[in-house]
Amino acid sequence: MLKNVDEYVASWSLSFFAALFLSPYLFFADVPVLGRHFWLALIYTGISVSITNLLMMKALKNSDLSKVSPIVAFSPLFLLFLSPLILGEFPTTYGLIGVILIVVGSYLLNLKKMAIGYFYPLKSLFKEKGTRMMLIVAFLWAIGSTIDKIGVQNSSPFFWAMSTNLVSSMILLPIMLHQSSNSKVEIINNIWSLAPVGFFLAIASFFQMTAITLTKVVYVISIKRISVIMSVISGWIIFKEDGIKERLIASVIMVLGVIFILLG
Question: Which value, to the nearest 10 degrees, does the dihedral of the CA atoms of residues 206, 221, 214, 17 take?
Fold first, then answer.
């Protein structure tokens, strides 16, 4: 998709089409009773989703998929510290082991560059633009996941998923119109690639919001991060990206960390 549209059109489309595919819910179910924390959580999440959409699309457009996608595995790491503060959900010993594995995996993403210096792989997380952007995305997603639980508790999984994507699309619309001079043409010409991305996000959002009502947020997001391996393999098979061996090993180690967090 990003080969044919700019990151502003892609970011807006992601939220807009997700909200569009979730909107039929309103015809089949009543609007839930909204709790007193709903609107504050919605404002924060709408802004946060807008920022992460833009950063993620910029990172994917300018860097290898197999390199930037594993960085989102940092979300569970951040959640181990954020969940106790915001939700009162505390990690276990297994969780801490998982954190170490995630850090080790992230270090190994740039293992070949150790010849430059032993700490170069760690420094590259902050030096390289794409990975730096995804690290910010991972942190904001971690905060957003805890706020999601508050939002769902004050509404319902379906209504919250639809509302957050709708607000995000409203925030991103003027940004897209300002930054993208040819947005209308890009959307029309690429509707068959833009809409499916929103469709899959709609389904994923609903299942994620439902899942966080059933267990701890850190467990849900940890399982979600298993997608890292699929992204790395896709980057190799579809986009012919190199360095697949080191990135796949790193991704597997990071997912092992996720599994330890889940065991916690």
Answer: -10
Residue-by-residue DSSP string for 2-44: TTTS-HHHHHHHHHHHHHHHHTTHHHHSPPPPPPTTHHHHHHH
Query: What pLDDT, in 10s, does the model give residues 176-203?
Result: 999 988 888 999 999 998 999 999 999 9
- From the list 64, 61, 47, the residue with the least C-alpha distance to 8 is 61
Question: What is the pTM (predicted TM-score) of this model?
Answer: 0.77
Write out the H or E segment, with its range, that includes residue 46. helix 38-62
d(CA 162, CA 203): 11
What is the pLDDT confidence band of residue 95, given thresholds at 50, 70 and 90?
Answer: confident
